[in-house]
Design a protein that fits this description.
21% of the residues are buried. Strand 3 and strand 4 form a beta hairpin. The termini are far apart. The protein is mostly beta strands. It has no helices and 19 strands.
Amino acid sequence: FLVLDTETDKAVKKTVRPGGIERFEEHSAISPDGTKVLISVVRKIDATSNHTKTGNQLIELSSGAVLWEKEIQLESPAFTPEGDRIIGEIFENFVTVDATTGEVLEKHPLPDGRFPSGSIANSATTFYTYTHDFRAYLYNLKEKKEDRLIVPGHPDLRFDSSAFFGDDFVAFAGREAEVRIFDLRTLTYVASLVQYAHSEDWAIIAPD
């Protein structure tokens, strides 16, 4: 894997794939102090099998040493601001993991049959946002509570991606040419962003 400097786009760390690892997955996270990286690795179950298992490794960037490896298959992981916990998604659950040991400390259950797509944590690691069946959802990790975010009068809008604006707002986009913005504090729709045709200019439109 490569670790890139976001200002220069140059690699600051390159690691050769260790023996026994088939491939790396796309799910990764860097600790707030920049000293550790969590990666997803895929291994063969045994030398004669084509079956694989997926796990996570926490690696010390300065030495390349593996601090721990667990078969927990975290998706969309993120370190807490303090760096002592890692949150992520596992089958129908969000979980909190001890960053020192890799042990699962707490589960945050999702409704039955919910399979988040494109889940993203906010910088404070208090919320996850995601879509399911093209619907927009927000999960409050502290309250272990899911809410669906709906544009009034348009319950059937289809969304497939999202992004946080700080820790107070979240935006969802889909197949229509608008970005819908919701206030996390009230869970209400507050505005949309629309790009003018054949232009790089955008307009912000209030809901009423």
